[in-house]
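Troubleshooting entry. The earlier prediction with iron/sulfur cluster gave an output that would not parse, so I re-checked the input for stray whitespace and re-submitted. Clean input:
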Amino acid sequence: MDGIKGKIYDIQGFSVQDGPGIRTTVFLKGCPLRCPWCHSPESQGFKTELNWMRIRCLGVEACGKCLTACRKGLIAKGPPSKSAAGEDIAYPEVDKTRCDECGACASVCKPEALYMCGDDMTADEVMRRLLRDKPFFDESGGGVTISGGECLCQPLFTLELLKRCKSEGMHTAVDTTGFAPWPAVESVLPYADLFLYDLKCMDSELHRRVIGVPNELILENALKIAAAGGRFQIRIPVIPLFNDSEEHFELYAGFLDKIRDAVDIVQLLPYHKLGVSKHERLLKNEKIFVAEPPSDELMDLRRGQLAARGFEVIIH
Ligand code: SF4
Ligand code: SF4
């Protein structure tokens, strides 16, 4: 399995939000869900793709190298728009509908404003990176989290990384939407110390309409993981007008009761607007979901609602 490769869009060290202790999180690319509030929309596509970051771009007047780099002529000078410093700058506009993600424009962009998102890495390469951080894991009770995207969409690679991490004595967590075929979930069970498991919405029809897939598979997999002895950190993104009502949290409480013995902790993640600015990076010009973040009072109410049922609940 030395040659097995995964498509990765980031590896982040010193994470303290992806499970216990200090962790290094491996983000695999590709996800079958389309959460409108996704805070890493660059993770959704399964292929390596061209991204752009406004904050790094010098503008076409000062630079403009990308305009001539595209052999298909897909990059043009756009109208002036505000830079982070408030200046009016003409940025490049990319016709993403005809782009074949060849990367020629990214290769001439010195500040890496245009960049290719998604690296094909071998398990060996990833493990070399993870082993560098092992002293921090040992010191803090941390470990490795395999995340995404949906890491179980690359089940063999995820399994290989988990096996190798366990053989190195590392704590392992799988951060998953739960929307994966049971055989993929079952294969990683013996090597996953913890599942960071998203429950985004308890109403399957609403789940399908907003996120693109129903929730039955997710709930079934959670029940099976619990029955097989897996451990959970349940993650609930609290999204205004979607799942933040008292009634909806009663549905959460009812389901969590079924897997109570397997739940170490419930984490409520208040919606925030970070994903909004990141959507621009995809150059897709899509409509973006924007809402006011839930208030601290509402978050406390929802935490109290689940805590009153005997669950340990954290917010962040
Ligand atoms: S080459 Fe890069 S920095 Fe220069 S204009 Fe194009 S995107 Fe901006
Ligand atoms: S990645 Fe797309 S826009 Fe850039 S050079 Fe290739 S085809 Fe053109």
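This one parsed fine. Residues 1 and 227 are 30 Å apart (CA to CA).
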